[in-house]
Amino acid sequence: MSIQTPATIEDVARLAEVSIATVSRAIHNPEKVAKSTRQRVNQAIAITGYTTNAMARSLRMGRSNMILVLAPDIGDPNFSSILIGLENEARAHGYGVLIGHTQNDPERGLEYLKFLNSNQAAGLLLFTGHAPFGHQEMTQRLPPSVAVFEPVFGSTIPYVGVDDTAGARKAAEYLLSAGHRRIAFIGDSKTRLGHLRRRRGYDLALDAARIPPEQRMVIDGEGTIESGRLAVEQLFMRDTLPTAFMCVNDATAVGVMNGLSARGYDLPKDFSVIGFDDVPQATYLNPALTTIRQPRSAIGRQAMALLLQSLSQPLAESREVLIMPDLVVRGSVTSPAKR
Amino acid sequence: MSIQTPATIEDVARLAEVSIATVSRAIHNPEKVAKSTRQRVNQAIAITGYTTNAMARSLRMGRSNMILVLAPDIGDPNFSSILIGLENEARAHGYGVLIGHTQNDPERGLEYLKFLNSNQAAGLLLFTGHAPFGHQEMTQRLPPSVAVFEPVFGSTIPYVGVDDTAGARKAAEYLLSAGHRRIAFIGDSKTRLGHLRRRRGYDLALDAARIPPEQRMVIDGEGTIESGRLAVEQLFMRDTLPTAFMCVNDATAVGVMNGLSARGYDLPKDFSVIGFDDVPQATYLNPALTTIRQPRSAIGRQAMALLLQSLSQPLAESREVLIMPDLVVRGSVTSPAKR
DNA sequence: GATCGGTATGTAAACCTTTACATCGCATAT
DNA sequence: ATATGCGATGTAAAGGTTTACATACCGATC
């Protein structure tokens, strides 16, 4: 019941009647110690319940086997399955994963940076844009880092994520192929790189279909449910309406569908909606949301692989790994209503 | 551009022309060092960009200022706001928070336990039931721990969470007051303590209203969306139907509403549904879900407070802190349809 | 002027590892 | 019989802190 202090390597050594060096070797280089000795050591370990003090180990070795994942919002529905990808890959290479939640607060970011500076983690994974600290000075002594899911704005940190442009283009093309010509883009942004690229995919597709710019409607938004709802209101103050809503992400799409339902429209009969991300809820909307699927676990896996690789040899140039997403057809897109 | 090794306390000492002891004191016990010296040290710190190596510090002191939060599923929509409560409270006391994701895998739990054994974290917060490791041996040398959101089954670990029984009772009473008499309970469980208690709240309320046991319908379920959907199917194989569904949590309610819509029913006209938790999506369902709101940030705050307190003086007995939840009325409950 | 008390600082040990280097035995080659 | 080499083990330093204890200094007290 009482908390005894954990056994140290010395306790094991004493019990096995060897030196601490031998214990250490028996654990990490078993082939370097005689079989009989090894057995005695292992027995002693079992008896004492010894588990090596990772902190002392990292202090001595100048590197740990933990990777820190920094996320501004762990509630992001994309995060959890990306994380699983990250973890599986890390695990396969003998690394553990810890998560830090910055809440977009630079102070908290700094706190975790100290954690890194103390070698308590060997590498850093940045989830969703924005470096978590004033990057000028700190970037200097940053450990190996990789951005995942969204590139870090204005930095050269290597990035692994979806091919936003191509994905958005697929979405727009699907809308076009269903017969839509007046397609609104909801969730335009000046600062979020991933969203900028999705906007570009939209433009590319509409250019190719020779939809003139004046038939395009583009509404700003920060990619939240609320922003989608708002966009509907703004759009209804205009004289012409779109027949389809292409949303920068699923959250926006939820807001749009909500706003439309609230106005008494019947989806997908009256309007088509398409999203981007394929968040878990997408299936449970009514109608179920047609969207672009983020290959989340692949992204996680590859991001971690890149990071782990850069631990041994620093990456040459800044790199971007883009993964192609697929269209997921559900019920929210139909041919445009005649009106 | 190149990664220089971080400055150590020695670098600072040399620059300020004092001993390392004085530097350490200047940082942690400023009143113990002369003003002029302190200034020199601070200057040196600024120049070198020194930040104390938390690992060496913890190694020496035998305790860190990080708290580890272990979650089997960080995708749980309840997790994120509880976490914020935890973090804010921790921060106010000079502690940082790290998250470990166990995915219900005991191996991973063990890995994080090693982390704790190395004093890399001073305390442990267990989110949502189930100790993350075979607890017999390990429980012995567990650091101060608190369970949050759901008690750990069959353990004496202190617990902070919602008053499930009282909350469920509120829900059932609301349904009764709306005129319902045939109320089904969806999501019964034998192993999840929190769910057991919600079931109890249901029984208590129906007892008080003198609803005979044969009019109660109780369907098993593990609290997932899918389980809710399934429950609807099971229920429709019976001869009598309920007029209202009381769901063990919101996820189940989503499944139930989905199943009902799929069968062509019109909610809330044909059936009433009530949930428990008030997850963020609850507002966006159609109809918006009437439910019991988890006081999430309060739970987080109090759990961390309890843990931090138990760091200085071990808790006497096993404790449970139960917080009373409120009913949130939205659109999914009406009077029963006449049929 | 010697003693005392108090404040400011320094010295060195301790926390728990890993690992370069040294040592020891023993078998093989000469 | 001596030299050589090799495998198994031990010794001790190093990694960056904190802190008990020792020292040095200075002003005040007798």
TrEMBL record, chains A, B:
The lineage of its organism: Bacteria, Pseudomonadati, Pseudomonadota, Alphaproteobacteria, Hyphomicrobiales. It holds the Pfam family LacI. SUPFAM superfamilies: lambda repressor-like DNA-binding domains, Periplasmic binding protein-like I. Gene3D superfamilies: 3.40.50.2300, lambda repressor-like DNA-binding domains. It comes from Mycoplana azooxidifex. It comes from the Bacteria. This is LacI family repressor for deo operon, udp, cdd, tsx, nupC, and nupG. InterPro entries: HTH_LacI, LacI/GalR-like_sensor, Lambda_DNA-bd_dom_sf, Peripla_BP_I. Keywords: DNA-binding, Repressor, Transcription, Transcription regulation.
